[in-house]
Amino acid sequence: MRVSPSLPAQLKAALDGKLQGFSRNEAAQRSSKISNAYRTGGNSGGIKSDADALAYALARMPATYAAVAASLNALTEIVPDLAPETLLDVGAGPGTASWAAAEAFPSLASFTLIDTNRTLSKLALELAEDSTQLAGCRYLPGDAGENLAQATPADLVVASYLIGELSESDQRALADAMWAKARHALVVIEPGTPAGYARILALRGRLIAAGAHVAAPCPHDRPCPLVAPDWCHFNQRLPRSQAHRQIKGADVPFEDERFIYVALTRAPPPTRAPRVLAPPDVGKAEITAKLCTEDGLALTKVPRRDKAAYADARRWRWGDAVLSES
Ligand SMILES: C[S@@+](CC[C@H](N)C(=O)[O-])C[C@H]1O[C@@H](n2cnc3c(N)ncnc32)[C@H](O)[C@@H]1O
Questions:
Q1: Inside any domain, residue 260
Q2: CB 3.0–4.6 Å: which of 1, 206, 263, 276 could bond 215 by disulfide?
Q3: Which residue is closest in CA terms to ligand 1's atom 11?
């Protein structure tokens, strides 16, 4: 099912419930402290109290949710028959990826969340309490690598905004461990920075060598054709609630989240489609689009005089797969 970038109603209601009696000023201060820690190379280790966890969820969950939703949409577009029943959410934090996966896959009946941060995990379980799909989720406390070694394999494994918190050698070990537990698919999402892209690229290459296929965003399993300083990333716009605006000290009613992801499958994807790598340039005479294709990078030009193709190309958005029937 195609997932909206907005938080689902049950999650919004659960977060609103938590906001009762919690000062927005305090949430804003705590979330800016946590964001500063991230910016200066820190990680979620600074999230220690229930108030910190809630401030993190209020400030970051809408954007990370929207990025996971977009990544899962890209996967289901290429592999429409995927119907996972079990999910492992690695580095689950407040449960963001589990909520997005529940929306994308009504087939999901079992959710296992792994995280070292007990405060964030407590919040994840509280938020899930009244959810139709997530209420029975399981939480495995502690390090992802250690937990994965014991975990039962799942149809779908997701790690969102996790691997940037690990050393390079831990990232390699975790990539192998997650792949070993992924029966059908593994989706890894990171911030859309050159560093986030480099981490995804390393994991992608390693797991292709181990037999994985790329379902999205790449329409091939070959090395990425982009050359530095270019890097692959996408943008997801999401609405900002009033509370979210107050906490982030923002004026505009939306936020743009830059992200990068890779969706890997055990079976070769049933279809491959070029991916739009940047906002297309709509000129008077033609549309120019940067596409990643099975044959490499292409700067495709669609002339206005080719009416049907031009009408199709006008609908292309950054991050879209250009499926042949579109
Ligand atoms: C930036 S948060 C992302 C949370 C959530 N996945 C999301 O997208 O909103 C990173 C999470 O990874 C967890 N984490 C970091 N290192 C970990 C490890 N070695 N094992 C398990 N969890 C870890 C942190 O506790 C934190 O909850």
A1: yes
A2: 263
A3: 91
pLDDT of residue 295: 94
**Is pLDDT at 21 greater than 70 in this prediction?**
yes
Looking at the fold, whether 182 and 306 belong to one and the same domain comes out as no
> If we measure between CA atoms, which residue out of 163, 159, 7 comes closest to residue 89?
159
Q: Which position has the higher pLDDT, 24 or 276?
A: 276
- The pLDDT, as a whole number, for residue 40 is 66
Question: Locate tokens 């090395």: which residue?
Answer: 223
Q: Are 118 and 124 in contact (CB under 8 A)?
A: no
Among protein residues, the one whose CA lies closest to atom 4 of ligand 1? 93
Would residue 2 count as lying in a domain?
no
- Could you tell me if the CB of 114 is within 6 A of ligand 1? yes
The best mutation among 119, 163, 165, 187 to test binding of ligand 1, ranked by most ligand atoms within 8 Å of the C-beta, falls on 165
Say whether both 292 and 207 belong to one domain.
no
- pLDDT surpasses 90 at 43: no
For residue 249, name the pLDDT band (cuts at 50, 70, 90). Answer: confident
Q: For residue 83, what are the contacts with CB-CB under 8 A and spacing of at least 6?
A: 105, 107
Residue 161 inside a domain? The answer is yes
In the block, tokens 């509370």 appear at: 243
The ligand 1 atom nearest the CA atom of 67? 8
Winning range, highest mean pLDDT, from 22-26, 49-53, 135-139, 156-160: 156-160
Are 286 and 205 in the same domain?
A: no
Cα of 302 vs centre of ligand 1, distance in Å, is: 43
The CATH number of residue 153's host domain is 3.40.50.150
Backbone angle region of 132, left / alpha / beta, with phi > 0 → left and psi within -120 to 50 → alpha:
alpha
Residue 320 is predicted with a pLDDT of 97
Structural domains of the chain, count:
2
Measured from the Cα of 170, ligand 1's closest atom is 19
**161 CB less than 6 Å from ligand 1?**
yes
- What's the pLDDT tens digit per position in 94-116? 999 999 999 999 999 999 999 99
Neighbours of 326 (CB within 10 A): 11
Q: Which structural domain, as residue segments, surrounds residue 199?
A: 9-265
